[in-house]
Amino acid sequence: MARGTDDEDRPRPRRTMAGRLVRGVDDRLGAASFTSKVLGKVFPDHFSFLFGEVVLYSFIVLVATGVYLSLFFDPSAHKVVYQGSYVPLQGQSMSAAYASSVDLSFDVRAGLLFRQVHHWAALVFMAAIVAHVARLFFTGAFRKPRDLNWYLGSTLLLLGLANGFAGYSLLDDLLSGTGLRIMWSVILSIPFVGPSLAFFVFGGPFPGEHIIARLFIVHVLIVPAAIAGIIGAHLAIVWRQKHTQFRGPGATEHNVVGSRLWPAYAARSVALFFGVATVLVALGAFIQINPIWLYGPYDPTAATTAAQPDWYMGWLEGALRLMPPGHAVVFGVTIPNLFFPAVVLPGVSFMLLYAWPVIERRLTGDRDAHNLLDRPRDRPWRTGLGAGVFTFYTVLFVAGGNDVLASEMGLSVNAIVIALRVVLIVLPVLVGLAVTKWCRDLRRADPPPPPEGASELETTGTTLTVDDTG
Amino acid sequence: MPTERDRPHASASVEYFVAGCFGAAIVGAAGFAASYWMDLGIHYEGLSAAVALGALAVGLGVWANTTLERADVVEERGPLGSTHEERRDVIDGFERGERRIQRRRLLAGLAGSSLVAAALAALFPFRSLGPRPHQTLSRTAWRRGTRLVGEDGAPVRPGDLEVGTALTVYPEGVSDPAQRAAAQTVLIDLGAAATAAAAGRPGWTVDHCIAYSRVCTHAGCPVGVYQPETRQLMCPCHQSLFDVTDGAKPIFGPASRPLPQLPLALDGDGHLIARGDFDQPVGPGFWNR
Amino acid sequence: MCAGTAPGKPVGMARRLVLGWLACGVIICSAFGAAHTAPRSRSGTATRHRTESTDESAGRTIWLRDCAVCHGADARGGEGGPDISRRGAAAVDFMVTTGRMPLPSPTAALQRRRSPYNAAQQRALIDYASTLVTGPAIPRVDIDRSNLSHGGAAYRQNCATCHQSAGSGGALAFGENAPDLSHALPTQVVEAMRIGPGTMPKFPRATISATQADQIAAYVQELRHPADPGGIDLGRLGPVPEGLIAWVFGLGALMLITRLLGRPRRSG
What we know:
The structure holds three protein chains of three kinds.
Chain A: H1 17-29, H2 32-40, E1 42-43, H3 51-70, E2 79-81, E3 93-95, H4 96-106, H5 111-139, H6 147-169, H7 174-188, H8 194-202, H9 211-241, E4 255-260, H10 261-286, H11 292-295, H12 314-322, E5 328-330, E6 333-335, H13 339-364, H14 380-400, H15 402-409, H16 413-445, E7 464-467
Antiparallel strand pairs in A: 1-4, 2-3, 5-6
Chain B: H1 12-37, H2 42-68, E1 72-76, H3 84-103, H4 105-123, E2 148-149, E3 166-171, H5 177-183, E4 185-189, H6 194-197, E5 209-213, E6 225-227, E7 232-234, E8 241-243, E9 249-252, E10 264-266, E11 272-274
Antiparallel strand pairs in B: 2-3, 3-4, 4-5, 6-7, 7-8, 8-9, 10-11
Helix pairs in contact in B: 1-2
Chain C: H1 8-37, H2 56-71, H3 88-97, H4 119-130, H5 148-158, H6 160-163, E1 170-171, E2 177-178, H7 186-195, H8 210-224, H9 239-261
Antiparallel strand pairs in C: 1-2
């Protein structure tokens, strides 16, 4: 072990608190050699490598605020008469779930802050996952050996969608009830098993009395436990495989250049946790989210315009809205219109997402392990494809808000729908081609990246420390 | 090429700044406690909490980026895979065990079967999750002779409506939320246009009044928007449009089937009644509808 | 935060990022804020007439000058406009007090505008025009003794499907709009139910009683200034602006933080 920089890092005698702690733990677990590797572990520095940590820290904020909320929330469809302090609802019959959510907002001190922070955290959690996926895709970080983590991350995205939907559906307000009604119809549309499955999930015909309690256990136990497990496995794999890095001075396929976990990277990461928490708390404190008291309790005979899901479900909502009319009849079996945008589209989307590492391996024939990242411009066709795919889902997302767009901008909903049906097909192709060309131009103007291993470490002076503990 | 980061000690001013941040975090935490205790509301609670967390973030971040690490460190990756011998050992070890199991074919087969049986048996309790649909999806609570009542439960006469009015009605005496949700019906006074609308189905309308299921055939939202000028019903969820004068056929949006129609008649008191259930299953489609 | 220590270029980039990000946020906030707080459109084409006289002849003068062109001197309609002689005083009052009439031009959309008349002129015109028409009278609306909670339930049952649960308005078919209700006065709310202006259906007394109508009007007033904690309301348009904020202010801010924390590679 060669340490070049500082004397104060030298191991101290055992009289210190750290010394006593290490001896105490090591006598029982024999963890000293592992822990010393942990402390010296090197992480490469790039801001985009921190998006995954934003996901992790949003999840921690979600769990912390969610536990608090669950102490007050009553996951029951049982009807109660509201007697809380919000006058425009007093005396109304509503589910205990909705009433306790309104109580959380008006009659539990700090309850509204926790509710709002929790909801903002969910939106940012999903946004951070998407940003993370985008970073991995455009830099080729999903290639062997990290295809494994790509599958785990894709599952995380899927579980995040499910838990977000389950979470906002718990409140049983007019907006979320409408969402559940659509979900009922989506399940119903599945050939052969649809009706039975819908009755299983809801415990009878819609709305039934069971769905809130069932969603609750899914939302607070089953899916979060799965998410926590996957995040743990995801991090363990990152740990084992060591993080990717960009090409740069000293960086090769066979090393990691960056900061040690202890103390610099750890301090930075903890700072990021507090940064995430700050942003989420600030959003929760000053920007209203999901004012359920204005939406009112759910009633299957009432409806409101501007009925959108949270943003991460917006692409599905948009697909439902853009789908041209018509249904299929195959051998006497009706396949309803809803089945195509609400079951086939997400099914195919996630299948392609999962399969991407394999697809690219087949297309390029590149089966090698990669630890150095591509710059997006280095793979023009991949970057173009990714840009086109993101454009596709963005257009769907915009379509999901077509009525809000129409009423805010004075346009016709019908015109927007017709136009977006065309845009949905044309724009991704155009964007994909343009981005591909842009990458090619950038690469032409740019000196090609140095071949691997060509640039050796400049080990002059004290700027670099070689650590062989890896 | 030494930068400030590479100097052995960050300037004192940076340390003062970091110390100030941690001080601010303590003040923010105290502020949160105070604003909670005094019930100052969400903005004060959130602001003080954000100050505490933000000051910690800034303090730690500046500290980390200025003094804690002064240089890049290089760590060798080492090979990820194991050696050929190690892999061989794993395969050999597994296959030795496998051969021992295979020597007792019957036992191994029974062990496997019992695992499968236990797993299958564990699936049975899921049957309790819900009843079978039976006819629930194909029929509603409307029966021959059921009176149409409004939200308040009062029966409706054709004269209660005016041209351009749409009223939500339910079968009288039905209070179950699921049944009401499926049976909700929109009753529309079409005026003179009712004659044309009734052309295909004589006897289904009464005195300019026509009734359709209010459950969208696309995704089941209440088709609550009636635009009397164009005599169209619109679903607020996905903007499907239905032409009320033409059997409520869909004319725009994703809906693919017309809204089922409720055949109407008058009872002896002049109240509107249904002559039976809807002509089709209501609501979104399913495979065997 | 680490501006003094990091190399110059990334800091410049970070600063530009911060500025761009703030600009995006301000644009989104002001777009949705403006949509909510300001009336949708206030046409400047209608000229303000200042006539101080408020007697019956003033109303007749205005009628003959501004209305009779289309609706005829007897309100039975003409080439340019419909017969309104059976629409009732409620319709006249609604159209004039909300500024929907007179139209600034024959092709203009029927929507809320700043009325070219002052209050006295409006009163005079309504009084005079009411003598020309038969039909629903101007309703007496008492919101002070009305049950808000019942009003809210009836509002969600009958109104929210077009006007949105928080009264922010919404899109109808083929470019029509259900207006935002943040400027609707109680009498106007009940008048609209009774007369069904534009694309709105009628809600006669048999379907919404006078009591219920008052309750709905009371709830619409409540929606103008609801007890609405939690911060900036984003136009009460639901999850669409919330998603934009989550991306721009939430993830945007966090990207800036990662940019400041994630050390750039040093060139050795």
